[in-house]
Design brief:
The complex is a heterodimer.
Chain A: H1 9-33, H2 65-100, H3 102-118, H4 121-131, H5 135-146, H6 149-164, H7 166-173, H8 178-215, H9 226-237, H10 243-270
Chain B: H1 3-30, H2 35-40, H3 42-46, H4 50-59, H5 66-78, H6 92-127, H7 132-146, H8 149-163, H9 184-218, H10 221-229, H11 233-255, H12 257-270, H13 276-286, H14 289-317, H15 319-326
Helix pairs in contact in B: 1-14, 6-7, 6-9, 6-11, 6-12, 6-14, 7-9, 8-9, 8-12, 9-11, 9-12, 11-14, 12-13, 13-14
Classes of the chains: A mainly alpha, B mainly alpha.
Chain lengths: 277, 327
Amino acid sequence: MGWFTAWNRRKTLFIFLIMAALMLTVITIGGRVLENEAMVTDFSRKNLAPCPAYPFGTDWMGRDMFVRTITGLSLSIRIGLLTAAVSALIACFMGTAAACLGKAADGLVGIVIDLVMGIPHILLLILISFAAGKGFWGVMAGISLTHWTSLARLLRAEVMQLKERQYIKIAGKLGMGKMQIAWKHMMPHLLPQLLVGVVLLFPHAILHEASITFLGFGLPPEQPAIGVILSESMKYLAMGKWWLALFPGCLLVLVVVLFHFIGDTLMTLINPNQAHM
Amino acid sequence: MGLRQVGKNIARMSVLLVLVSIAAFFLVTVSPLDPLRTNVGQAALGSMSQEQIAQLEEYWGVNTPPVKRYVSWAADFLRGDMGTSLLYRQPVSKVIGEKLANSLWLMASAWLVSGAVGFVLGVAAGARKGGLTDKLISAYALLTASIPAFWLALVLLMIFAVWLKVLPIGLSVPIGMEASAVTLGDRLVHGILPVAALSITGISNIALHTREKMAEVMESDYVLFARARGESEWEIVKRHGIRNILLPAMTLQFASVSEIFGGSVLVEQVFSYPGLGQAAVTAGLGGDVPLLLGITVISSAIVFAGNFTANILYGAVDPRIRKRRAG
């Protein structure tokens, strides 16, 4: 990639990484600041198509769609961060438990994973949201409880493999305690995996939050969540109000792409096998 | 695959299905949503007499203990009686049968299209990792992985139904037409956009996976040796690449049945397509517990059937596994 030859690829990647993270931070904080403005209705500016003053147009209640979109995304990102972190914790616990606590625990974790994966994702989200009485906590619980499975499997396989390695076995023979080995020899291997896993969980978490809210199970309609915005836009689509759906969706895709990019880049930068790029 | 393996798989599947039904039943039982308040409305409840409310409570099964309810529900379910849908006022099995018939061909075609196209794209990208084709395909896969299915459905709807007016805006059959007058063509036309939305977003997973595996094969020693022997690039891809990666790709695709189902829930909602997904949403929003439970069990059965097929294929396609099991 020779668009700027003074830097090697590693440095350019790092700069892009910072830029992406910065952009997400701006959206997150911006949305928090603009929260009140997103609710402002003004019937003198109803149904405006995108123009310089309102780049994303306004809706049927004269609300500025740009402000609403940013607020919605900010909400999505915050929910995504929280649920991804909780999911990763569950995954960490389940994965290591399956690998270390013997055959029975392994089988049990396996069954739980199969169970969670066996019910189609969206349907399980609907069920959990239904169980929690819909609303904010339903979404939080649903997404946290459904996204840990693949990461748990990954961590389990990793720990299983590590346990068989020569140097771990030797450490055991030399009299190191189990916790000591886990902390000193296993953690450094697992931490990068876990970190990347968490970052790569965000996109899923955000998309599922938007989806479940879109279906009417998630955040309440008075919140300017991205799923609510898109679900409202559906009613006005046939009347030609294309901007209500197009721009919020585009920005949502942008945010998810940025998270994917950050995850992939981190993976590349952390992986020592790719140090010499 | 030996008979024992098949038996083991089926036993595991049945146990999991029972667990799914228990989990789902538990979830709907702990729900604080009062079925009366959701469906009758606060105002109407206020104006009703105590007897009427008691009658309604009995209809929605408010006062029976959960374990007893589960046992009687499960016993009936095994006999084929899934209960009566409270919203559709029809047997659940009938509602599910109707909706499933609508959804199944939608999901099946999207599944086939996304699997086939994704695999071909993945092979093309992985065969020359780092080339222009690879970059384009990877970018495309990354983008579609980030696009929510329902938004893509909205955009497709906007372009083809609202602007160009070439395809219908929703439903599975033309509005106001008698059931007997609906032709196969009508159904196909109504299915195009939903299938497109489902397939486009479903490709990325299999494409990225196949690309990764293909690139791995291309860097292996046996491919280096094949090159040294003078095999052409296409021969290498055919003999050493596709043979090695077809199996994991197929397993992945069978395991992705659950994703396609989830996508169809969203896409059906956008297109007001009267399928199983839309019924699930209606049931969830309206507190129609028997229907929600029925759909959960049936769709899980479909997902498990997908996994089961993947396992069987594993044995049938891969000679190494076949041999190991025989020996």
